Amino acid sequence: MANHTQLDKIEFFLARIANALESNAGVGYPRMPDWGDATLWIWQAKHMALRAVTKTDALPLDLLVGIDEQHTTLMENTLQFAKGFGANNALLWGARGTGKSSLVKAIHNELDNDPTLPLHLIEIYREDLGSLPSLLTILREEPDIRFILYCDDLSFDENDHSYKTLKAVLDGGVEGRPDNVIVYATSNRRHLLPRNMIENERSTAIHKGEAVEEKVSLSDRFGLWLGFYNADQDAYLEIVHNYAKHYKLTVSNKDALEWAVTRGNRSGRVAWQFIQHIAGQQGKSL
């Protein structure tokens, strides 16, 4: 028979076990957020939860110059979706720093000012794509809210099979993508996979054409493709001066071009970095 001391120890360890079970309750099951907290979220796959983002770095739309066609097309698509009409998943592809992610965030920020449009933006990291079904479980429960799933810098390497999960969400799967969810992704690659990966599939497959189609068809699941390209000199200077006018800075073409030379290209990102440099020199914050 256990003595009093042994019983105390048993009770102590049972209490610890109970506390541990309570603290871990719900792990592996998606947690429902309070949608009134924010309209911008980050999906945390490890915790199966959405984290509210209350402060955004989105730029005003009128600061994004040189991508007017892309702006118009994506805005129309997003507005259609926000109103509950037909719209396409969108792939924004092209050179680094050309405004792909800035445009997605700026459009959401612009439409977020309209209280009649219940539009939320949820960022999901590429390495968390395997948890997409769990996230969709949450979003299906809110049919009156429209959700943009946003994945920045999307690409896949060899032996990475998470693209199959994304592919199923975009177009296939038994349950399918909820009507209140759309996917926007940015990438430096038009087909999201490196050329050598596609060629390896071609060389080793029994049915080579089908293997390549399996890889390339991921980007085909995006109904809207928008290309972004490095700016020429005139477009780059237009971006610089547009920023400078907005932030009331004094800039010279000579300095702006010298800055671009040191960075090795001309893009919206390089222009913004130059503006940050000039703002610091002139004692201003952006």
Description:
This protein has helices spanning 4-23, 68-82, 100-111, 132-139, 163-170, 195-204, 208-220, 233-247, 253-263, 268-281, and strands spanning 40-44, 49-52, 90-94, 119-123, 146-151, 181-187, 224-228. The protein is an alpha/beta fold and 286 residues long. It has two domains: 35-228, P-loop containing nucleotide triphosphate hydrolases (Rossmann fold), CATH 3.40.50.300; 233-281. A seven-stranded mixed beta sheet has the order 2-1-4-5-6-3-7. Strand 4 (119-123), helix 4 and strand 5 (146-151) form a beta-alpha-beta unit. It is globular and about 75 Å long. The model is unreliable at 22-27 and 204-211 (pLDDT under 50).
Q: Descriptors for this entry?
A:
10 helices; alpha/beta; 2 domains; 44% helix; Rossmann fold; 286 residues
Could you give the order of strands across the largest sheet? 2-1-4-5-6-3-7
Give the H and E element order: HEEHEHEHEHEHHEHHH
Number of strands: 7
CATH class of the largest domain: Alpha Beta
Q: Report the major sheet.
A: 7 strands, mixed
Mean pLDDT: 83
- The fourth-level CATH homologous superfamily of the largest domain is P-loop containing nucleotide triphosphate hydrolases
CATH architecture of the largest domain: 3-Layer(aba) Sandwich
Gyration radius, in Å: 24 Å
**Annotated CATH topology of the largest domain:** Rossmann fold
Distance between the termini: 74 Å
Percentage of β-strand residues:
5-15%
Please provide a brief summary of the model.
The chain has 286 residues and is α/β, with parallel strands linked by helices. Helices cover 44% and strands 13% of the residues.
